[in-house]
TrEMBL record:
Keyword annotations from UniProtKB, A to Z: Oxidoreductase
Any GO MF annotation of the entry: arsenate reductase (glutaredoxin) activity
Enzyme class at the top of the EC tree: oxidoreductase
Family: Belongs to the ArsC family.
Annotated organism of origin: Hyphococcus flavus
Pfam families according to UniProt: ArsC (PF03960)
EC number: 1.20.4.1
Gene: arsC
Protein name: Arsenate reductase
Catalytic activity reported: [glutaredoxin]-dithiol + arsenate + glutathione + H(+) = glutathionyl-S-S-[glutaredoxin] + arsenite + H2O
Length: 115
């Protein structure tokens, strides 16, 4: 089983989720998404694996770029994907992927249902 975590080490929920995985004897592939932003194709895949209708469901809507880019009024899904690709801080954290399923670790225990 290959598990991947899109991780921000400065985020307490992300650190807690990583610890939870390790407690379950899972050593995930850690993607530091702020340093290595996911491609648009990967972002679209994450939306699908999370079971979301829109990328907006995996966006941090209180971040400055969300407000500055007026993404609340963005109608096109491609605009949201483009915004996350260009401003990875907009991506909710952490996201854990296991095969064709993913979960946002808020709370960290939410990822257990995909393991």
């Amino acid at each position: 089983m290959t598990v991947t975590i899109y991780h921000n080490p400065r985020c307490s929920k992300s650190r807690q989720t990583l610890s939870l995985l390790q407690e379950k004897s899972i050593e995930p592939e850690v993607v530091l998404y702020l340093e290595n932003p996911p491609s648009k194709a990967v972002l679209k895949s994450l939306v699908a694996k999370l079971g979301l209708k829109s990328a907006r469901g995996m966006m941090r809507v209180k971040e400055a770029p969300y407000i500055e880019l007026d993404l609340n009024n963005a109608k096109a899904e491609s605009a949201l994907i483009d915004a996350i690709a260009e401003n990875p801080i907009l991506m909710e954290r952490p996201i854990v992927v296991n095969g064709d399923k993913a979960a946002i670790g808020r709370p960290p225990e939410a990822v257990l249902e995909i393991l």
